[in-house]
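Students often ask why we bother encoding 3D structure as a string. The short answer is that it lets us treat folding as translation between two languages. Here is a chain of 112 residues written in the first language.
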Amino acid sequence: MKLIIATIKPFKLEEVREALTGIGVRGMMVTEIKGFGSQSGHTEIYRGAEYAVNFVPKIKLEIVVAASMADQVVDTIKNTAQTGKIGDGKIFVLDVSQAVRVRTGETDADAI
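And here it is in the second language, the structure alphabet:
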């Protein structure tokens, strides 16, 4: 099993969710986060005062899938979330050693 962690632009969430559902992803965890990378923030003017926005709003997706499906999930996120502009996000893939469904006690592949 693989844990895929992706950060994407907030307005791409629904499009990415639909694309992942379309390839058979059955669940994901979504968190609103703030961060910076190459963008490293920017300045904005609010009521005549300029201020620095050091952290940019992002969405973090966490998805656990069978190892055989990981590449397809990564490609789907990459292709769907891409705008071609700075700040499109990052995708990380990690190994998962165990999964348990709390309600039924199912483990590993049966739990996801």
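Translate back mentally: Strands lie at 2-8, 29-35, 42-46, 49-53, 56-65, 90-95. Keep this in mind for the problem set.
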